[in-house]
Hints:
444 residues, seven-stranded mixed β-sheet, five-stranded mixed β-sheet
Amino acid sequence: MEKITSLAKRRGFVFQSSEIYGGQNGAWDYGPMGVELKNRIAGAWWKEMTQFHDDIVGLDAAILMHPRTWEASGHVENFTDPLVDCKKCKARFRADQIPPENLAAKKCPECGGELTDTRKFNLMFKTHIGPAEDTASIIYLRPETAQGIYVNYKNIIQSNRMKIPFGIAQIGKAFRNEIVTKNFIFRTCEFEQMEMQFFVKPGTDEEWFNEWRNRRWAYYEKLGVKMDHLRWHQHGPDELAHYAKDAYDIEYLFPMGWRELEGVHNRTNYDLNRHTQYSGKDMQYIDQDNNNERYIPFIIETSAGLTRNLLMILCDAYDEEQVAEKGNDDDWRTVLRFHPSLAPVTVAVLPLMKKDGLAELAQDIRKGLKEDFATDYDQGGAIGRRYRRQDEAGTPFCVTVDYQSKEDNTVTLRFRDSMEQVRVPIAELATRLRQEIKAYKRIK
Ligand code: GAP
């Protein structure tokens, strides 16, 4: 993880928030490469969920919601972690993450000092809306995007004439006052989620739950993730969230071990029932195709962290490779093997020399590619070093412009993964790149 964190900083993927002030715990900034990668991951998910599913529509709800939302959802009462402090060294722990014998003996796992009693700590960030800081003005930063979907579910049925079964997808920020925020961007206080809520008829929920588990698994396969680094984990009775009847996590083998990447939850009709109760509004669905049958739908939720997906994609892509066959035994390269559809830069154009019109020709070629691809241009230093820089940034294709290019209008197309090079006519470059992206299969 240290190597990935340091590469992420060096290449402008992720910076510590407010670094000049010593950093802000639980918050990170996404640099020029990071924001591109994050947008592409979000784009891939959005396309998968909305473009490929006629029965799913999108939403972008506000972060600030009526505080009653969080009473109804159960978050005010239940969204807590058990917390203990060490009276001696002042370290703070989640009680469920320290050895049980330490908890039983009230002994700090770090300094042996005495631990406080376990107390419940609500993870929601609280602030005030308006100038008065009293209890009437309390408002929360949403801890999940899901509730914005539930409170809009009737609006969407009416405005878009949706019929059950149907889904609503949303990507957005969520906030949790996490007690432990180590492991880079894995668990942070400010993060982004990609959530989809699928509304189904009660009694069909288990079937849809299985269907969505299969679809989400297939999605990661399509994204080219190492499938032996993914596994399912079913929540036991003591792990289930207060709203869930059944829940499975897709776990990824991160450098620190297997950890949750995404959850698929059967939330029953808990949330809509509670919103009916707390808002006084009728949340029933009226099935006009079935004698106006009325019911509160069950909800199957797929909930993935966008920023956690970014960490997974970085870890999954990271590779160090000895390239001894190129001459020097000590020659190693660091390479990010991103799927070309996710890579922040798709193609870099490199003139072999700055002089003799090669730089101008390379700039022209880049200009021609810009409409369809994310491009970069680099003319500084030896060509081998420039390839290494692009490998480290995960750029899948490099185009090199040399003296032959001036004579026969061809360039060298170099592939990041195999390091193979082929000669391609400039006029066919865009078509060839499109074909390569479509046919991409990870080789290592
Ligand atoms: N709406 C259901 C829900 O929020 P969750 O399991 O608490 O369920 C879903 O969160 C996903 O959100 C997780 O699988 C993870 O990817 C991401 N996530 C949750 N807490 C996070 C945090 N503190 N930092 C980064 N990502 C987080």
